[in-house]
Amino acid sequence: MAQKPLTDQPVPGTAPAAAPRAADKIRRTARELFYAAGIRAVGVDEIVTKAGVTKPSLYRAFPSKDELAAAYLRDYDAEFWQRFEARLDNAGRDNPRAGLMDFLHNLGSRAGAPHYRGCGLSNTAVEYPDDSHPARKVSEEHKQKLRLRLAELAADMGADDPKLLGDSLMLLIEGAFVTGQLFHAGGGPARALAEAAERLIDSHLKG
Amino acid sequence: MAQKPLTDQPVPGTAPAAAPRAADKIRRTARELFYAAGIRAVGVDEIVTKAGVTKPSLYRAFPSKDELAAAYLRDYDAEFWQRFEARLDNAGRDNPRAGLMDFLHNLGSRAGAPHYRGCGLSNTAVEYPDDSHPARKVSEEHKQKLRLRLAELAADMGADDPKLLGDSLMLLIEGAFVTGQLFHAGGGPARALAEAAERLIDSHLKG
DNA sequence: CAATATGCGTACCGATCGGTAACATTGTCA
DNA sequence: TGACAATGTTACCGATCGGTACGCATATTG
């Protein structure tokens, strides 16, 4: 909803599984490369080569590499919320703690995977300290949303100080993102994520 | 102690305050620029220009930009431990909790400063996913040391599960590093750092 | 069949990247 | 004075960076 279509959608129902347009291939390829190696480390030439398209196709669909990076993060943001809310829904809206813990358990185990690279949005903020960068803006907005959502969940759990618990949980989550890519041999500090969250939540429900 | 001197030290007591060698100026300038903007974002030309030296001087003192980045992180690592252990000493070796909390309170407030940029070592790991990069190696070694040290402190506090508490604290700390540079307008989630740590420590001392 | 529009590719741009060769200059100490 | 070590000066290298001018192909549409 936040983004105007960069190319026309293929009319649905006409051609059976139309070949993916160049812009889509670029978007998907950029997503993989940007996430795995970082945005600065990936050149536009590598993107178009791996996507099987050419450079002008990239610049017809995206005004600049920076905007392509921002588009990558918008996709990333959308997928994050989709999975996050799905877990909450799955546990039932009346049981936010179970839904959040499901997310945390999953994150804790993913963070121990061999080539885990953390959160693409957090990583981008590290790569681009300047607030004016379009990709960083997406990252900042996402994190503000996440912060609010965590406080909301803490309130739904009945925490005595929901904002404080939300922020505490956010520190744990971001810590898991970072340490997950620092201790990739499995069994890094992220293994403590769920247990630490349980203890913090408990401490906020006793008041 | 882990690094052979790249240039001879000036003989102490001969010349009164000898002019800083080119290698030192490069090291200091690189440190500031790398930390503030990230390593990939800073070119060697910018470093030598701002340091007031020339490019050959850089490459006479350091074999490559990557090794200069590694040297920057070794300095960073040394300063980190110096300040960290100083706080512990200041609180008394018989009171590790007070020393750690002093560190956490300080970190929590620093993380709210306008242009806070987190931990240079963590940031570098985000910038360089490849384990073979010399700068990343320094980062990984540092984080392993930090993890062990935190578990050690947890044990000294009498925690029931020192490794678990140590890892939990590490998640909070790394979370403060990252969120500190995401919510630079002060009052980010890092404000919860100390309080969350207190609660986690308490929960590990009740067993 | 033409006309038009859309999508894509070839080839190229100037700028900057990390890094180096060869030589001049300086200051220090014997 | 002479030798040496450290730095500066200048000019350069090939590679890669992000970005673009321009023309070719295909397909729909009158």
What's the arrangement of secondary structure elements?
Two copies of one chain form a homodimer.
Chain A: H1 22-37, H2 44-51, H3 55-61, H4 65-91, H5 96-110, H6 120-127, H7 134-157, H8 162-182, H9 193-205
The structure holds a DNA duplex (30 and 30 nucleotides).
Entry keywords:
DNA-binding, 67% helix, Arc Repressor Mutant, subunit A, mainly alpha, disordered N terminus
> Under CATH, the topology of the largest domain in chain A is which?
Tetracycline Repressor, domain 2
Please name the CATH architecture of the largest domain in chain A. Orthogonal Bundle
- Gyration radius from CA atoms of chain A, angstroms: 19 Å
Distance between the termini of chain A: 41 Å
Query: How much strand of chain A?
Result: under 5%
The first-level CATH class name of the largest domain in chain A: Mainly Alpha
Average pLDDT of chain A, to the nearest integer?
90
Overall form of chain A: elongated
Oligomer: homodimer
Main pleated sheet of chain A: none
Largest interface (CB within 8 Å) is between: A-B, 52 and 52 residues
Structural class of chain A: mainly alpha
Number of domains of chain A: 2
Number of helices of chain A: 9
